[in-house]
Task: inverse folding
DNA sequence: GCATGTATGTGA
DNA sequence: CACATACATGCG
């Protein structure tokens, strides 16, 4: 019996069912849609909806729409629902949380979680063939190529795609088509993408040192606790941190849950993937921005369908809708690459901790040189801490020598960049049949080119930056916007001919000097210009390992955890490079980078030597590196930050005002400063020109909000921005917890 | 984010 | 006046 009728209530027309749908657009909130009668939707369902003249995808954010909002008669209907498991509730809460924290729209965050809309569609079945076993039809001509294909198909095996068959039989795709038309091959529909292979959590791992085993036990315990925890895994280079967190991944896999590993630059870590494969038998699913097209689609679907037990990725992998995430590892947690600087501005390490908290799962932050933030959290007990003290394999720490570039006897000759002390060390290393490495974090030939006769400096038309001469490619390049140009024959200002002089060194110039000093040495240059794609990096690495290279010269790309047994000398050409500029973390970052570079020297049984050229040998960074005293450096750095109420002892947020019209940008920035929030614990600095006052043709100003640690900056920022109209031609970006300072 | 309408400018 | 281009708006 109908309950409504029975209770005397008139059964009117059935109410319109409405849902809130979040769209991947920068809108303030979700939109309401009507649910068709024949459709069932739960929160998290992926749907397609009409939006103006377009059709866009969205995710059902709530099943009870806003009745007081758009009237029912103006609602549009959900068009269809995609055949996918709904986005889990944790993922949805995480998206809302990140949006609120970063002051961006939830739709923009959703875009990061579903960055391949094509992956929502069912994948097209792939055509594959099996042998039909039929006899050839009359008129069939047997050829060598056809025979090869048929012979190949004699072997038992799964159906194979035309492309695979053609490749294996070394024939054209037309041969396959011909055979299919003759009825000798039977077409079958194949699942378009094979499932990723399953890592084997039960494979025995490597033998761990007592320290490693203790650390692995502690991390495993965190996984088995099945609750939120954040743990710093602090271990010097070569202490075997990776093996330790692999054990935590194994524990997570044994629970049947997914594990996520965030790496700073996934594209550069094929060594990491190999290591993973050695431990678990297969490679994990990768997720990063270089992944495109079908690969990206397949990876997303595998993750969402719970078919990717382990995902390794760059920062953006954090936002993917994992159905049952059980562990997050942030490797090299101190790396600046985790900070996303445009669009939704966030720090992946911090967001990872938030994701762990919302999901009730453990997060491991791994580093040899932890960030001050993480270290402070470990010291105050907010995070757990696991120390891995020993350098695995028995190699001792390298001997670090500071070369004072101010002293006449250690200064390089004019127009040279290598101190005689370093050159002597290089001679010794080469004579001993060992390898050396020179590090300079500056691409190109020279950072600045100027006209000898009038002093004109070659500058980027779109940015406040010098154009960098690249001799290898015979071009000038802007390292900020990608502008390139030929080196002009005559000075654009005074028209003098061949008047340009290079000022200062880049790696190319150091390579030139090395070629003069050591004409017989085999030299390899390693920069992002010379190495296009991960394969190229791998090739150089192999060559160095095979000792086909005596001297390696390069930038940051070279500093990452590759280890070379015969490398015993590291020369840092300009140790002061990172210290300039108004960066809050300049000292910390320089220390981290140089520490990592120094760690390349002498890893096996050979002792390593590091020579660090600097103009400030008394600087705490240099002293800490020479004395191998990281903790003293961090303590001093912490004292300074505390004294100035800077993070992690105070909070920062930045506003970046940008636009093409400099006067308009300047005016808005000054207007914002005028209506800045006030209070005892609140201070607004600026506006000041942003570090690159002109970037990609846009003028930029920065305002900095500095508050005490306990202050919630988001509401402050929100009311601040709402208090003043912002013209459409000017953009105001909010950077909560900015990395660079002014 | 993007398609759309409206305001504004450019040239015959 | 026709047409191109800049900016503001709303999308449920």
Result:
């Amino acid at each position: 019996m109908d309950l409504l009728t029975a209770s005397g209530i008139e059964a009117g027309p059935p109410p319109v069912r409405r849902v809130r749908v979040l769209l991947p657009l920068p809108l303030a909130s979700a939109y309401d849609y009507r649910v068709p009668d024949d459709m069932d939707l739960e929160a998290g369902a992926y749907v397609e909806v009409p939006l103006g003249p377009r059709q866009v995808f969205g995710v059902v954010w709530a099943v009870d729409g806003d009745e007081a909002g758009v009237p029912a008669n103006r609602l549009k209907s959900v068009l269809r629902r995609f055949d996918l498991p709904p986005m889990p509730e944790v993922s949805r809460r995480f998206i809302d949380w990140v949006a609120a924290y970063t002051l961006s729209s939830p739709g923009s965050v959703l875009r990061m979680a579903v960055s391949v809309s094509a992956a929502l569609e069912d994948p097209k079945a792939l055509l594959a063939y099996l042998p039909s076993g039929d006899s050839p039809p009359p008129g069939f001509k047997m050829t060598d190529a056809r025979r090869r294909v048929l012979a190949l198909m004699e072997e038992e095996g799964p159906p194979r795609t035309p492309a695979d068959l053609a490749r294996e039989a070394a024939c054209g795709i037309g041969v396959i088509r011909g055979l299919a038309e003759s009825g000798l091959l039977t077409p079958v529909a194949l699942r378009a993408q094979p499932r990723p292979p399953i890592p084997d959590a039960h494979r025995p791992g490597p033998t761990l040192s007592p320290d490693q085993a203790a650390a692995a036990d502690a991390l495993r315990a965190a996984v088995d606790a099945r609750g939120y925890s954040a743990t710093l895994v602090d271990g010097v280079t070569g202490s075997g941190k990776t093996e330790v967190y692999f054990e935590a991944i194994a524990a997570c896999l044994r629970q049947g849950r997914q594990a996520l590993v965030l790496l700073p630059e996934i594209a550069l870590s094929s060594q990491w993937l190999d290591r993973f494969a050695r431990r678990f038998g297969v490679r994990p699913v990768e997720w990063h921005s270089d992944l495109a097209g079908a690969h990206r689609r397949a990876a997303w679907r595998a993750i969402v369908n719970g078919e990717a037990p382990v995902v390794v990725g760059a920062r953006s992998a954090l936002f993917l809708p994992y159905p049952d995430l059980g562990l997050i590892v942030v490797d090299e947690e101190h790396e600046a690459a985790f900070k996303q600087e445009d669009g939704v501005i966030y720090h992946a390490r911090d967001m990872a901790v938030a994701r762990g908290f919302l999901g009730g799962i453990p997060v491991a932050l791994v580093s040899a040189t932890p960030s001050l933030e993480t270290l402070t959290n470990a010291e105050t007990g907010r995070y757990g801490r696991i120390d891995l003290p020993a350098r695995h394999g028995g190699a001792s720490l390298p001997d670090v020598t500071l070369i004072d570039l101010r002293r006449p006897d250690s200064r390089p000759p004019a127009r040279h960049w290598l101190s005689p002390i370093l050159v002597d060390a290089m001679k010794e290393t080469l004579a001993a049949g060992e390898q050396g490495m020179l590090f300079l974090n500056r691409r190109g030939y020279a950072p600045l080119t100027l006209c000898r006769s009038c002093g004109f400096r070659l500058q980027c038309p779109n940015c406040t930056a010098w154009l960098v001469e690249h001799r290898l490619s015979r071009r000038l390049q802007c390292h900020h916007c990608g502008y390139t140009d030929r080196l002009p024959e005559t000075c654009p200002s005074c028209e003098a001919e061949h008047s340009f002089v290079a000022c200062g060194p880049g790696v190319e110039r150091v390579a030139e000097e090395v070629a003069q000093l050591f004409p017989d040495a085999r030299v390899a240059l390693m920069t992002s210009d010379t190495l296009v794609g991960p394969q190229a990096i791998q090739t150089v690495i192999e060559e160095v390992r095979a000792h086909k290279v005596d001297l390696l010269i390069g930038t940051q790309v070279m500093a990452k955890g590759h280890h070379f047994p015969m490398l015993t000398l590291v020369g840092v050409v300009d140790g002061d490079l990172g210290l300039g500029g108004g960066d809050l973390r300049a000292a910390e970052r320089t220390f981290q980078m140089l520490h990592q570079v120094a760690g390349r020297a002498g890893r096996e049984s050979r002792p390593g030597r590091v020579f660090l050229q600097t103009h400030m040998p008394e600087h705490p960074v240099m002293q800490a590196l020479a004395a191998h005293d990281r903790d003293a450096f961090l303590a001093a750095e912490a004292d300074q930050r505390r004294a100035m109420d800077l993070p992690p002892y105070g909070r920062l947020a930045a506003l970046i005002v940008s636009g093409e019209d400099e006067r308009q940008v300047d005016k808005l920035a000054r207007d914002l400063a005028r209506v800045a929030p006030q209070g005892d614990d609140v201070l607004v600095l600026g506006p000041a020109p942003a570090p690159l006052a002109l970037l990609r043709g846009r003028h930029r100003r920065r305002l900095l909000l500095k508050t005490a640690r306990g202050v919630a900056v988001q509401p402050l920022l929100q009311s601040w921005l709402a208090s003043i109209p912002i013209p459409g031609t000017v953009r105001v970006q909010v950077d909560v917890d900015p990395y660079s300072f002014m």
About this structure: Chain A is about 30% helix and 25% strand. Residues 210-224 of chain A form the longest helix (15 residues). The first strand of chain A starts at residue 18 and ends at 22. The CA atoms of residues 72 and 391 of chain A lie 67 Å apart.
